Amino acid sequence: DPYADDPVRHPALKVNSQRPFNAEPPPELLTENYITPNPIFFTRNHLPVPNLDPDTYRLHVVGAPGGQSLSLSLNDLYKFPKHEITVTLQCAGNRRSEMSRVKEVKGLEWRTGAISTARWAGARLCDVLAQAGHQLCETESHVCFEGLDSDPTGTAYGASIPLARALDPEAEVLLAYEMNGQPLPRDHGFPVRVVVPGVVGARHVKWLGRVSVEPEESHSHWQRRDYKGFSPSVDWDTVDFDSAPSIQELPVQSAITEPQDGETVESGEVTVKGYAWSGGGRAVIRVDVSLDGGLTWQAAELYGEVQRPRKAWAWCLWKLQAPVPAGQKKLNIVCKAVDDSYNVQPDTVAPIWNLRGVLSNSWHRVHVHVTP
Ligand code: MTE
Ligand code: MO
Protein backbone atom coordinates (compact mmCIF):
# COMPACT_ATOMS: atom_id res chain seq x y z
CA ASP A 1 0.00 0.00 0.00
CA PRO A 2 1.79 3.16 -1.19
CA TYR A 3 -0.38 5.18 1.22
CA ALA A 4 0.57 3.24 4.35
CA ASP A 5 3.14 5.89 5.30
CA ASP A 6 0.76 8.87 4.95
CA PRO A 7 0.66 11.15 8.05
CA VAL A 8 -2.08 11.09 10.71
CA ARG A 9 -4.77 13.72 10.09
CA HIS A 10 -7.02 15.91 12.22
CA PRO A 11 -10.37 14.23 12.95
CA ALA A 12 -12.39 17.39 12.25
CA LEU A 13 -11.49 17.30 8.54
CA LYS A 14 -14.26 16.28 6.12
CA VAL A 15 -12.64 13.61 3.97
CA ASN A 16 -13.47 13.55 0.25
CA SER A 17 -10.98 10.83 -0.57
CA GLN A 18 -8.77 8.76 1.72
CA ARG A 19 -6.20 7.55 -0.87
CA PRO A 20 -4.95 9.93 -2.11
CA PHE A 21 -5.91 12.06 0.88
CA ASN A 22 -8.27 14.95 0.14
CA ALA A 23 -10.09 16.78 2.88
CA GLU A 24 -11.55 20.14 3.86
CA PRO A 25 -12.31 21.82 7.18
CA PRO A 26 -16.00 22.15 8.10
CA PRO A 27 -17.33 25.66 7.30
CA GLU A 28 -17.73 26.82 10.89
CA LEU A 29 -14.04 26.02 11.61
CA LEU A 30 -12.85 27.52 8.32
CA THR A 31 -13.79 31.07 9.32
CA GLU A 32 -13.24 30.74 13.05
CA ASN A 33 -9.72 32.18 12.56
CA TYR A 34 -8.34 34.50 9.91
CA ILE A 35 -5.24 32.30 9.66
CA THR A 36 -6.21 28.66 9.18
CA PRO A 37 -4.48 26.45 11.79
CA ASN A 38 -2.15 23.95 10.08
CA PRO A 39 -3.99 20.79 11.24
CA ILE A 40 -7.26 21.86 9.55
CA PHE A 41 -5.81 23.52 6.41
CA PHE A 42 -7.51 21.83 3.44
CA THR A 43 -5.42 19.09 1.82
CA ARG A 44 -5.38 18.20 -1.86
CA ASN A 45 -3.04 15.31 -2.71
CA HIS A 46 -2.97 13.49 -6.05
CA LEU A 47 -0.49 10.85 -4.89
CA PRO A 48 0.96 9.30 -1.72
CA VAL A 49 2.77 11.71 0.61
CA PRO A 50 6.54 11.27 0.24
CA ASN A 51 8.57 10.91 3.43
CA LEU A 52 11.59 13.13 2.83
CA ASP A 53 14.70 13.39 4.98
CA PRO A 54 15.45 17.08 5.63
CA ASP A 55 19.18 16.32 6.01
CA THR A 56 19.59 14.80 2.57
CA TYR A 57 16.92 16.89 0.82
CA ARG A 58 18.17 18.77 -2.24
CA LEU A 59 16.36 21.18 -4.51
CA HIS A 60 17.67 21.06 -8.07
CA VAL A 61 17.52 24.36 -9.92
CA VAL A 62 18.47 24.13 -13.56
CA GLY A 63 20.66 27.08 -14.49
CA ALA A 64 20.39 29.45 -17.43
CA PRO A 65 22.72 28.90 -20.41
CA GLY A 66 26.02 30.26 -19.16
CA GLY A 67 24.57 30.27 -15.64
CA GLN A 68 24.98 27.69 -12.94
CA SER A 69 22.73 24.79 -11.96
CA LEU A 70 22.15 24.63 -8.22
CA SER A 71 21.67 21.77 -5.82
CA LEU A 72 20.35 23.45 -2.69
CA SER A 73 20.11 21.90 0.76
CA LEU A 74 17.63 23.29 3.27
CA ASN A 75 20.48 25.21 4.90
CA ASP A 76 21.35 26.74 1.53
CA LEU A 77 17.73 27.89 1.15
CA TYR A 78 17.76 29.42 4.64
CA LYS A 79 20.67 31.66 3.52
CA PHE A 80 18.49 33.53 1.02
CA PRO A 81 16.63 36.52 2.51
CA LYS A 82 13.61 35.12 4.40
CA HIS A 83 10.34 36.49 3.07
CA GLU A 84 7.04 36.02 4.92
CA ILE A 85 3.56 36.72 3.52
CA THR A 86 -0.06 35.79 4.20
CA VAL A 87 -1.48 33.94 1.20
CA THR A 88 -4.83 32.26 0.58
CA LEU A 89 -4.63 29.02 -1.38
CA GLN A 90 -7.71 27.82 -3.24
CA CYS A 91 -8.18 24.67 -5.27
CA ALA A 92 -9.70 25.14 -8.74
CA GLY A 93 -12.30 22.56 -7.65
CA ASN A 94 -13.53 24.49 -4.60
CA ARG A 95 -17.38 24.37 -4.55
CA ARG A 96 -17.45 21.70 -7.27
CA SER A 97 -20.32 19.91 -5.51
CA GLU A 98 -22.65 22.77 -6.48
CA MET A 99 -21.65 22.31 -10.12
CA SER A 100 -22.26 18.58 -10.05
CA ARG A 101 -25.85 19.25 -8.89
CA VAL A 102 -26.48 20.84 -12.31
CA LYS A 103 -24.94 17.96 -14.26
CA GLU A 104 -22.36 15.31 -13.48
CA VAL A 105 -18.72 16.43 -13.45
CA LYS A 106 -15.48 14.50 -13.06
CA GLY A 107 -13.75 15.29 -9.78
CA LEU A 108 -13.82 15.34 -6.00
CA GLU A 109 -16.97 16.68 -4.38
CA TRP A 110 -15.48 19.72 -2.66
CA ARG A 111 -17.91 21.88 -0.76
CA THR A 112 -16.88 25.43 0.29
CA GLY A 113 -13.72 24.39 2.15
CA ALA A 114 -11.09 23.80 -0.56
CA ILE A 115 -9.58 27.13 0.46
CA SER A 116 -7.41 28.14 3.43
CA THR A 117 -5.03 30.90 4.51
CA ALA A 118 -1.57 30.72 6.09
CA ARG A 119 1.54 32.77 6.82
CA TRP A 120 4.17 31.31 4.49
CA ALA A 121 7.89 31.96 4.84
CA GLY A 122 10.77 31.02 2.61
CA ALA A 123 13.14 32.19 -0.08
CA ARG A 124 11.79 34.27 -2.94
CA LEU A 125 11.89 32.28 -6.19
CA CYS A 126 13.29 35.36 -8.00
CA ASP A 127 16.33 35.39 -5.69
CA VAL A 128 17.00 31.67 -6.26
CA LEU A 129 16.54 31.99 -10.05
CA ALA A 130 18.89 35.00 -10.10
CA GLN A 131 21.59 32.89 -8.46
CA ALA A 132 21.11 30.32 -11.24
CA GLY A 133 21.66 33.07 -13.81
CA HIS A 134 18.08 33.60 -14.96
CA GLN A 135 17.05 37.07 -16.03
CA LEU A 136 13.93 38.44 -17.63
CA CYS A 137 14.84 38.17 -21.29
CA GLU A 138 12.70 35.29 -22.56
CA THR A 139 9.33 36.62 -21.38
CA GLU A 140 7.52 33.79 -23.12
CA SER A 141 9.27 31.21 -20.97
CA HIS A 142 7.80 29.21 -18.10
CA VAL A 143 9.16 28.04 -14.79
CA CYS A 144 8.41 24.34 -14.35
CA PHE A 145 8.15 22.71 -10.94
CA GLU A 146 8.36 19.01 -10.14
CA GLY A 147 7.24 17.37 -6.93
CA LEU A 148 8.93 14.41 -5.25
CA ASP A 149 5.61 12.56 -5.06
CA SER A 150 5.10 10.11 -7.90
CA ASP A 151 2.69 7.51 -9.23
CA PRO A 152 3.56 3.79 -9.73
CA THR A 153 5.06 4.59 -13.17
CA GLY A 154 7.40 7.11 -11.54
CA THR A 155 5.62 10.16 -12.95
CA ALA A 156 5.89 13.12 -10.58
CA TYR A 157 3.33 15.84 -9.92
CA GLY A 158 4.27 18.92 -11.94
CA ALA A 159 3.06 22.37 -12.93
CA SER A 160 4.40 25.66 -14.27
CA ILE A 161 3.93 29.42 -14.11
CA PRO A 162 5.07 32.12 -16.55
CA LEU A 163 8.70 33.20 -16.04
CA ALA A 164 7.61 36.84 -15.88
CA ARG A 165 5.64 36.13 -12.68
CA ALA A 166 8.46 34.04 -11.22
CA LEU A 167 11.06 36.78 -11.71
CA ASP A 168 8.85 39.67 -10.58
CA PRO A 169 9.83 40.49 -6.97
CA GLU A 170 6.41 42.15 -6.55
CA ALA A 171 4.69 38.83 -7.33
CA GLU A 172 6.36 37.39 -4.20
CA VAL A 173 6.52 33.79 -5.42
CA LEU A 174 8.06 31.77 -2.59
CA LEU A 175 9.93 28.55 -2.09
CA ALA A 176 8.32 28.15 1.30
CA TYR A 177 9.75 26.10 4.15
CA GLU A 178 7.51 27.48 6.91
CA MET A 179 3.73 27.54 7.37
CA ASN A 180 2.40 29.57 10.27
CA GLY A 181 5.82 29.65 11.95
CA GLN A 182 6.31 25.87 11.76
CA PRO A 183 8.19 23.69 9.30
CA LEU A 184 5.72 22.67 6.58
CA PRO A 185 3.53 19.75 7.70
CA ARG A 186 4.06 16.65 5.56
CA ASP A 187 0.64 17.00 3.91
CA HIS A 188 1.49 20.54 2.83
CA GLY A 189 4.81 19.81 1.16
CA PHE A 190 7.57 19.21 3.75
CA PRO A 191 10.29 20.34 3.46
CA VAL A 192 9.73 22.86 0.60
CA ARG A 193 6.78 23.91 -1.54
CA VAL A 194 6.06 26.66 -4.04
CA VAL A 195 3.62 29.40 -3.03
CA VAL A 196 2.34 31.48 -5.96
CA PRO A 197 0.22 34.29 -4.48
CA GLY A 198 -3.04 34.97 -6.32
CA VAL A 199 -2.75 31.81 -8.43
CA VAL A 200 -4.72 28.54 -8.40
CA GLY A 201 -3.61 25.93 -5.84
CA ALA A 202 -2.49 23.46 -8.51
CA ARG A 203 0.64 25.56 -9.25
CA HIS A 204 1.79 25.61 -5.59
CA VAL A 205 3.85 22.45 -6.06
CA LYS A 206 4.54 20.56 -2.82
CA TRP A 207 7.59 18.40 -1.95
CA LEU A 208 9.47 20.46 -4.50
CA GLY A 209 12.36 18.58 -6.13
CA ARG A 210 13.16 20.46 -9.32
CA VAL A 211 12.84 23.93 -10.81
CA SER A 212 13.66 24.62 -14.46
CA VAL A 213 13.05 27.40 -16.97
CA GLU A 214 11.58 26.05 -20.20
CA PRO A 215 10.36 27.53 -23.49
CA GLU A 216 6.98 25.81 -22.95
CA GLU A 217 4.60 25.11 -20.10
CA SER A 218 5.12 22.00 -17.99
CA HIS A 219 4.20 18.84 -19.90
CA SER A 220 2.56 17.44 -16.76
CA HIS A 221 -0.95 16.04 -17.01
CA TRP A 222 -2.07 18.61 -14.42
CA GLN A 223 -0.81 21.52 -16.48
CA ARG A 224 -1.99 20.36 -19.92
CA ARG A 225 -4.88 17.92 -19.46
CA ASP A 226 -6.56 19.26 -16.35
CA TYR A 227 -7.21 22.57 -14.54
CA LYS A 228 -8.66 24.33 -17.57
CA GLY A 229 -12.08 25.87 -18.12
CA PHE A 230 -14.49 25.08 -20.98
CA SER A 231 -17.92 26.05 -22.28
CA PRO A 232 -20.90 24.21 -20.74
CA SER A 233 -21.53 22.50 -24.09
CA VAL A 234 -18.08 20.84 -24.23
CA ASP A 235 -18.20 17.19 -23.14
CA TRP A 236 -15.60 14.42 -22.78
CA ASP A 237 -16.05 13.41 -26.43
CA THR A 238 -15.42 16.89 -27.81
CA VAL A 239 -13.02 18.44 -25.31
CA ASP A 240 -9.74 19.74 -26.76
CA PHE A 241 -7.47 20.51 -23.83
CA ASP A 242 -4.94 22.30 -26.07
CA SER A 243 -7.58 24.88 -26.99
CA ALA A 244 -7.80 26.45 -23.52
CA PRO A 245 -5.16 28.16 -21.39
CA SER A 246 -4.17 26.62 -18.08
CA ILE A 247 -5.83 28.25 -15.10
CA GLN A 248 -3.49 30.66 -13.32
CA GLU A 249 -5.18 33.62 -11.57
CA LEU A 250 -8.55 32.66 -10.13
CA PRO A 251 -11.81 34.64 -10.40
CA VAL A 252 -13.54 36.44 -7.52
CA GLN A 253 -15.05 34.07 -4.97
CA SER A 254 -17.10 34.15 -1.77
CA ALA A 255 -19.09 31.74 0.35
CA ILE A 256 -21.30 31.64 3.42
CA THR A 257 -19.91 29.54 6.27
CA GLU A 258 -22.59 30.34 8.91
CA PRO A 259 -25.40 29.49 9.09
CA GLN A 260 -25.25 26.30 7.07
CA ASP A 261 -27.78 24.96 4.61
CA GLY A 262 -30.80 23.40 6.33
CA GLU A 263 -30.03 24.90 9.75
CA THR A 264 -32.65 26.51 11.97
CA VAL A 265 -31.93 30.06 13.17
CA GLU A 266 -33.58 32.12 15.93
CA SER A 267 -36.14 34.75 14.93
CA GLY A 268 -35.15 38.31 15.79
CA GLU A 269 -31.63 38.64 14.47
CA VAL A 270 -29.41 36.49 12.28
CA THR A 271 -25.61 36.52 11.98
CA VAL A 272 -24.22 35.53 8.60
CA LYS A 273 -20.48 34.84 8.21
CA GLY A 274 -18.21 33.87 5.36
CA TYR A 275 -15.07 34.47 3.34
CA ALA A 276 -14.26 36.32 0.11
CA TRP A 277 -11.16 36.35 -2.08
CA SER A 278 -10.04 37.14 -5.59
CA GLY A 279 -7.05 36.00 -7.65
CA GLY A 280 -4.15 38.03 -9.05
CA GLY A 281 -3.77 40.21 -5.95
CA ARG A 282 -7.12 41.89 -6.54
CA ALA A 283 -8.68 43.00 -3.28
CA VAL A 284 -12.27 42.30 -2.30
CA ILE A 285 -13.92 45.70 -1.95
CA ARG A 286 -17.46 44.62 -0.99
CA VAL A 287 -19.55 41.62 -0.07
CA ASP A 288 -23.31 41.89 -0.61
CA VAL A 289 -25.61 39.65 1.40
CA SER A 290 -29.28 39.00 0.74
CA LEU A 291 -31.75 37.27 3.06
CA ASP A 292 -34.45 37.06 0.40
CA GLY A 293 -32.80 35.20 -2.44
CA GLY A 294 -31.32 38.29 -4.07
CA LEU A 295 -34.24 40.75 -4.08
CA THR A 296 -32.61 43.10 -1.56
CA TRP A 297 -28.99 43.39 -0.43
CA GLN A 298 -26.98 44.62 2.53
CA ALA A 299 -23.22 45.20 2.62
CA ALA A 300 -21.38 42.91 5.04
CA GLU A 301 -18.67 44.10 7.40
CA LEU A 302 -15.25 43.00 6.08
CA TYR A 303 -12.42 42.11 8.47
CA GLY A 304 -8.97 40.55 8.52
CA GLU A 305 -5.45 41.61 7.62
CA VAL A 306 -5.19 44.84 5.63
CA GLN A 307 -4.05 44.01 2.10
CA ARG A 308 -1.56 45.98 -0.02
CA PRO A 309 -2.66 47.46 -3.38
CA ARG A 310 -2.31 44.90 -6.19
CA LYS A 311 -0.94 42.42 -3.64
CA ALA A 312 -4.13 41.36 -1.90
CA TRP A 313 -3.01 37.75 -1.66
CA ALA A 314 -5.17 36.85 1.32
CA TRP A 315 -8.91 36.55 1.81
CA CYS A 316 -11.15 38.77 3.88
CA LEU A 317 -13.65 37.40 6.31
CA TRP A 318 -17.05 39.06 6.52
CA LYS A 319 -20.03 39.25 8.82
CA LEU A 320 -23.55 40.63 8.69
CA GLN A 321 -25.91 40.94 11.64
CA ALA A 322 -29.40 41.69 10.42
CA PRO A 323 -32.96 41.60 11.74
CA VAL A 324 -35.02 38.68 10.49
CA PRO A 325 -38.12 40.16 8.84
CA ALA A 326 -41.12 39.49 11.14
CA GLY A 327 -43.22 36.47 10.24
CA GLN A 328 -40.47 35.00 8.04
CA LYS A 329 -40.41 31.17 8.23
CA LYS A 330 -37.49 30.65 5.88
CA LEU A 331 -34.49 32.65 4.74
CA ASN A 332 -32.85 32.27 1.36
CA ILE A 333 -29.40 33.68 2.16
CA VAL A 334 -27.11 34.69 -0.70
CA CYS A 335 -23.65 36.27 -0.84
CA LYS A 336 -21.62 37.76 -3.67
CA ALA A 337 -18.30 39.59 -3.64
CA VAL A 338 -16.88 42.40 -5.77
CA ASP A 339 -13.12 42.83 -6.33
CA ASP A 340 -11.19 46.02 -7.03
CA SER A 341 -11.49 45.52 -10.80
CA TYR A 342 -15.27 45.42 -10.18
CA ASN A 343 -15.37 41.77 -11.20
CA VAL A 344 -18.49 40.10 -9.80
CA GLN A 345 -19.61 36.53 -9.31
CA PRO A 346 -22.16 35.02 -11.72
CA ASP A 347 -25.64 34.59 -10.19
CA THR A 348 -26.14 30.96 -11.17
CA VAL A 349 -23.91 27.97 -11.77
CA ALA A 350 -25.43 26.45 -14.95
CA PRO A 351 -23.89 28.99 -17.39
CA ILE A 352 -20.40 28.38 -15.94
CA TRP A 353 -20.78 24.59 -15.67
CA ASN A 354 -17.79 22.75 -17.14
CA LEU A 355 -16.97 19.06 -17.43
CA ARG A 356 -14.15 19.17 -14.89
CA GLY A 357 -16.13 21.20 -12.36
CA VAL A 358 -13.55 23.95 -11.90
CA LEU A 359 -13.97 27.71 -11.33
CA SER A 360 -17.27 27.27 -9.48
CA ASN A 361 -17.84 30.79 -8.15
CA SER A 362 -21.51 31.61 -8.55
CA TRP A 363 -23.46 33.39 -5.78
CA HIS A 364 -23.40 31.14 -2.76
CA ARG A 365 -26.86 30.31 -1.39
CA VAL A 366 -28.04 28.67 1.82
CA HIS A 367 -31.60 28.00 2.90
CA VAL A 368 -32.44 28.12 6.60
CA HIS A 369 -35.55 27.78 8.74
CA VAL A 370 -36.54 30.37 11.33
CA THR A 371 -37.88 29.27 14.73
CA PRO A 372 -41.45 30.58 15.09
N1 MTE B 1 1.99 19.35 -5.33
C1 MTE B 1 2.33 18.06 -5.43
N2 MTE B 1 3.62 17.72 -5.45
N3 MTE B 1 1.36 17.08 -5.49
C2 MTE B 1 0.03 17.41 -5.48
O1 MTE B 1 -0.81 16.50 -5.54
N4 MTE B 1 -1.67 19.20 -5.45
C3 MTE B 1 -1.87 20.58 -5.90
C4 MTE B 1 -0.93 21.53 -5.18
N5 MTE B 1 0.41 21.05 -5.18
C5 MTE B 1 -0.35 18.77 -5.41
C6 MTE B 1 0.70 19.72 -5.30
C7 MTE B 1 -3.24 21.08 -5.77
S1 MTE B 1 -4.33 20.68 -7.00
C8 MTE B 1 -3.60 21.96 -4.77
S2 MTE B 1 -5.14 22.62 -4.71
C9 MTE B 1 -2.64 22.33 -3.71
O2 MTE B 1 -1.38 21.67 -3.84
C10 MTE B 1 -3.21 22.00 -2.34
O3 MTE B 1 -2.30 22.35 -1.34
P1 MTE B 1 -2.57 21.89 0.15
O4 MTE B 1 -2.77 20.42 0.16
O5 MTE B 1 -1.40 22.34 0.96
O6 MTE B 1 -3.84 22.60 0.58
MO1 MO C 1 -6.33 21.78 -6.66
Automatic annotation (TrEMBL):
Keywords: Heme, Iron, Metal-binding, Molybdenum, Oxidoreductase
The protein, known as: sulfite oxidase
Subunit structure of this chain's protein: Homodimer.
General function of this protein: Catalyzes the oxidation of sulfite to sulfate, the terminal reaction in the oxidative degradation of sulfur-containing amino acids.
Cofactor (UniProt): Mo-molybdopterin
Taxonomic placement: Eukaryota, Metazoa, Chordata, Craniata, Vertebrata
Enzymatic reactions: sulfite + O2 + H2O = sulfate + H2O2
Full protein stretch here: 174 to 545 of 545
Domain of life (superkingdom): Eukaryota
Pathway of action: Sulfur metabolism; Energy metabolism; sulfur metabolism
The enzyme's E.C. designation: 1.8.3.1
